[in-house]
Design brief:
Length: 588
């Protein structure tokens, strides 16, 4: 092979295929002054580009409607309507009449509009900044006569490896799984949105490659190994054969793991560990239910909003929640209220605040918009009629937020009662422990909540002050740092003291070594991606709580994440004895 690029393993699986390079970036534009007699021609050129861009958007819209659905496709109507806006096009034409080249004129007006949208008080308007950027790329690409590349241009069966800087909402809804075999991005980490979504879609993915889009030309072939983070460029025949063999081995291992779905999740010393699934898309519910998961430990509802032009109404949300609840029969289904912002789409896809992760997001945004939040709460109370629904609040830092949410929940119940709708009001309300504030002061919540769920992705980010989505910091994102382990231990201790249920639903739970540590810290409920349920069950069935407790105690006592990891590995290797299943591949 010519080259090996190493990134962050984001979604397992092996893909071999041609590289499809997607540079979805605003191109460089030169400042160009045109003579008076060229103004007419320039206006023509601008209008022609607009027409072509609109035509292209209509094609994309139709295609997305066929592959993903009408709601996902509506975003392209919004983008098209921007190009029909006479205020926008008029401003561009005015600048052209003042002798500016069309592309510069368009760029200036788009910049002004983006600034205006970014400052808008309403999140749905701020979200449109991303659409403006998409529209800008399309029109400038045409005006500058650059190669036009939409991911959907790929024919079915192309088996392509999509290499791009990052995935925006509008790109995400266009991903055609029949054409794309794997995803590789410069940006992102294991816990960033693109990685979570790739796992949901079952697409092998590597993120955090940093410079892949600069190093590749799009004429290569590649092997993408999602579980190791390796992207092998222009592999030889022999390389491909050896990776095929690896893929075959992965399939055998998968089959072995699937066999476990019917077995009990119990340690060798007889302690039951409840394994639940993280469901990011309602369509995943059925897969989750067959993975052996005993319910849903985290449904991320914000994915209902990805790539959408409008918020889903109460009926649509109700149907989505009901689908998940019904897939799991009598098992609990923990549904988290919208966690939008930070790196979560739609608003956070394009940070419009100086510090989006410390910004107006999740429960903060929901409490400040009671009407929007009320729609979700009513849909949840209605879905609760069909099973064991539990409601969970994200990014909580103070019990005041829980009380305010409960008041809105009571209001939602009164509204439903007044309407005569069927609903349940006795739905348990819990909180995510994903900020140091919530972990340190978890005792202040105990009288107001029914359960805790530890979101380690954010807890690690906020405790260590390491942006979870920043590829440059990936090696510093260390969940086994003693500070994180101590916060987890404290949360579990407090929950047990007050007989509250406590689970872990962050990515830590799905990595064997860390699941081992969590069990040692006292966790008895883990929630992981559906595909990871059998893997974690295999670890559970291979260890004793006694050994896990000794390992966790030793891991908390050391000074660094590396030492914690080494300690845990040593204990786990001892516990696994000659079991070669995990090989050396025990992820840290
Ligand atoms: C977490 O923060 O650990 C979590 C589970 O939530 P999310 O990854 O959706 O932020
Ligand atoms: Mg979180």
């Amino acid at each position: 092979m010519d080259q090996k690029l190493v990134g962050v393993p984001a979604s397992p699986g092996i893909a071999v295929g041609p590289v499809h390079l997607l540079r979805w970036e605003v191109p460089e534009v030169r400042h160009r002054i045109i003579p008076d007699d060229a103004v007419g021609g320039e206006l023509q050129r601008f209008r022609a580009a607009l027409e072509k861009a609109k035509e292209r958007l209509s094609q994309v819209r139709d295609r997305v409607e066929r592959t993903a659905g009408a709601q996902e496709a509506a975003i392209f109507d919004v983008q098209r309507s921007m190009l029909d806006d006479v205020e926008l096009t008029g401003a561009v034409e005015e600048l052209i009449r003042q002798n500016l080249g069309a592309e510069k004129a368009f760029e200036i007006v788009m910049f002004e509009w983006s600034q205006r949208f970014a400052r808008a008080p309403h999140p749905m308007l701020r979200e449109r900044v991303g659409d403006l950027k998409d529209v800008e790329i399309r029109v400038l690409t045409l005006l500058l006569d650059l190669p036009d590349h939409d991911p959907v241009d790929l024919p079915k069966g192309a088996n392509a490896i999509l290499v791009t800087h990052d995935l925006t909402p509008s790109l995400t809804v266009q991903l055609d799984r029949q054409a794309i075999a794997g995803i590789a991005t410069d940006a992102g980490t294991r816990t960033s949105h693109v990685a979570i979504l790739a796992r949901s879609l079952g697409l092998p993915a590597i993120v955090g490659l940093r410079t892949a889009t600069q190093q590749l030309t799009g004429r290569e072939t590649a092997i993408l190994e999602g579980s190791t983070g390796l992207l092998a460029i222009n592999p030889t025949h022999k390389d491909i054969e050896s990776y095929r063999e690896r893929a075959r081995q992965e399939m055998v291992a998968d089959a072995e793991l699937r066999r476990l779905s019917a077995l009990e999740s119990v340690t060798t010393d007889g302690v039951r560990i409840t394994l639940r699934a993280n469901v990011d898309l309602p369509e995943e519910a059925e897969l989750g239910a067959t993975s052996g998961a005993e319910g849903v430990g985290l449904m991320r509802t914000e994915f209902l909003v990805v790539g959408r032009a409008t918020m889903p109404d109460e009926e649509e949300q109700y149907r989505s929640y009901r689908r998940v609840v019904q897939s799991f029969g009598a098992h609990p289904v923990v549904i988290r209220t919208f966690d939008v912002g930070g790196d979560k789409l739609p608003v956070g896809g394009y940070p419009t605040e100086p510090n989006p992760f410390l910004g107006w997001r999740a429960i903060r945004m929901c409490l400040d918009q009671p009407e929007m939040f009320g729609v979700q709460l009513r849909a949840l109370l209605r879905a609760a009629v069909h099973g064991d629904v539990r409601i969970m609040l994200p990014l909580v830092v103070t019990v005041d937020e829980v009380r305010a949410a409960r008041a809105l929940l009571d209001q939602a119940a009164r509204d439903l009662a007044a309407r005569g709708a069927a609903f349940r009001h006795d739905v348990p309300l819990g909180v995510m422990i994903e900020t140091p504030a919530a972990a340190v002061a978890c005792d202040t919540f105990v009288n107001d909540v029914a359960f805790f769920s530890i979101g380690t992705n954010d807890l690690v980010q906020y405790t260590l002050a390491v942006d979870r989505g920043n590829a440059n910091l990936a090696t510093r994102f260390t969940p086994l740092h003693p500070a994180v382990l101590k916060l987890i231990r404290r949360t579990i201790f407090t929950a047990h003291q007050h007989s509250l249920e406590v689970a872990v639903c962050g990515e830590m739970a799905s990595q064997p070594l860390m699941a081992f540590a969590l069990i040692g810290l006292g966790v008895r409920q883990l929630s992981v991606a559906p595909r990871s349920v059998p893997l974690v069950k295999r670890i559970v069935r291979s260890i004793s709580v006694e050994v896990a407790e000794a390992a966790a105690k030793a891991a908390v006592a050391v000074g660094t994440a590396a030492e914690s990891e080494a300690t845990l590995r040593q204990h786990l290797a001892g516990a696994l004895g000659g079991d070669g299943f995990f090989g050396d591949g025990l992820p840290g």
